[in-house]
Specification:
6-stranded antiparallel beta sheet
Length: 371
């Protein structure tokens, strides 16, 4: 690139970085609100909350990158146009293609960045997030027990634990069971922990005693080294963990396994996700060319480009919504996957046609006016 092209590239790059950072921060804030229950409902630390929230960031970033690039191009090119720098570049002999090259170069870099997130970073992050959420939801002690407080885990059953360690083990446990009328049971133990499997859930208690009043009104007292208290009425069996389409790598989506096909009723959803991962970065090029058409197509306007910007924003929004509709249609009919590529390519070609159309028709209009 010549010096002025490098200048144009830098003038677009920094607004893009700023826009990506701002939109990612906003998305992170929105995502964090949906994860508040990790702290309140599962008694997790702020570090766990931050980890799960950050793991969702790659997918949100990949979705927002084309929008951020569109905003950056409109902002940067509007500033350059207001300073008449495009007019000066054109007067010095630069063609429209020479002005477009640094913008297209930025679009190519962003496409590669977006593609890397879609194909590698997002599945890695989402797999780890899925494992973390599964471990949290499988931790029955975190959802049932509030350390230092009496908790009614079900009708007639109250549970208390003085404290709970990070490994899920509870100290100084008390269980009071009044489900059987006139035969209350009280169990105390030095230590306890919850064991869950795919078929049952129970609390294992160690070094304690069991006190029960029978139907005759007599107190029975038994000590034990180890016993179990059935939690089947209050805690379901542990759910099996499986990866969704958003968690899988590209080869797993193109060649889905039998479990994926059985769960989704066919391979169409996996194929739609695969083609979306490959096609969505093309919107970066389409949005760059649409933004460039606002300022490079037609004659220079001293009154500003507000109306053109609003039209470009509307067209860009319509283009992206059409892409989402094509993705949704592809999940039901795999033949619609081609549309996921054609929509951004069509937008790019139309924008290029708008940019170069005035240079072809202006001489004919001038000659017709003179004649």
């Amino acid at each position: 690139m010549i010096l002025v092209q490098r200048y144009f590239f830098r003038q677009m790059l920094w607004p893009f970085i700023t826009a990506v950072s701002a939109l990612a921060g906003l998305a992170l804030l929105t995502q964090s609100l949906s994860n508040v229950d990790l702290v309140s409902g599962h008694s997790q630390t702020a570090l766990t909350f931050l980890k799960v929230t950050l793991l969702a960031l790659p997918q949100l970033t990949a979705l927002l990158v084309p929008i951020a690039l569109f905003i950056a191009l409109l902002s940067g090119m509007n500033r350059l146009s207001a300073d008449s720098e495009f007019v000066i570049a054109s007067a010095s002999g630069m063609s429209r293609l020479a002005v477009l090259l640094p913008l297209i170069r930025l679009a190519v870099y962003v496409i590669i960045f977006n593609l890397a997130i879609n194909l590698f970073v997002q599945p890695l992050a989402y797999r780890e997030m899925r494992r973390s959420l599964h471990d949290l939801r499988s931790d029955a002690a975190a959802s049932l027990i509030t350390p230092g407080a009496f908790t009614e885990i079900g009708a007639g059953v109250t549970l208390y634990a003085r404290e709970r360690g990070r490994d899920g083990r509870m100290q100084d446990v008390l269980i009071h069971d009044t489900r059987v009328a006139n035969e209350p049971i009280t169990i105390t133990a030095r230590e306890g922990f919850i064991v869950r499997s795919s078929t049952q859930s129970s609390m294992v208690l160690a070094d304690g005693n069991r006190q029960q009043i029978d139907a005759a009104g007599e107190l029975g007292y038994v000590t034990f080294d180890r016993t179990e208290f059935d939690l089947g009425e209050f805690v379901g069996p542990i759910d099996a963990m499986f990866f969704k389409e958003s968690d899988r790598f590209l080869h797993e989506l193109i060649w889905p396994d039998a479990s994926t096909i059985a769960r989704s009723g066919g391979p169409e959803r996996a194929w739609a996700e695969a083609h979306y991962r490959l096609s969505s970065p093309l919107y970066n090029l389409a949005f760059v060319l649409i933004a460039a058409a606002v300022f490079l197509a037609g004659d220079y306007s001293r009154l500003g480009y507000g109306r053109r910007v609003m039209v470009a924003v509307g067209l860009g929004l319509a283009l992206r919504l059409t892409g989402f509709a094509a993705q949704s249609a592809s999940a039901a009919d795999s033949s619609a996957n081609i549309a996921q590529y054609l929509i951004p390519l069509f937008g790019s070609l139309v924008a290029l046609g708008v940019i170069y159309w005035p240079t072809r028709v202006r001489p004919r209009r001038l000659s017709a006016a003179r004649g």
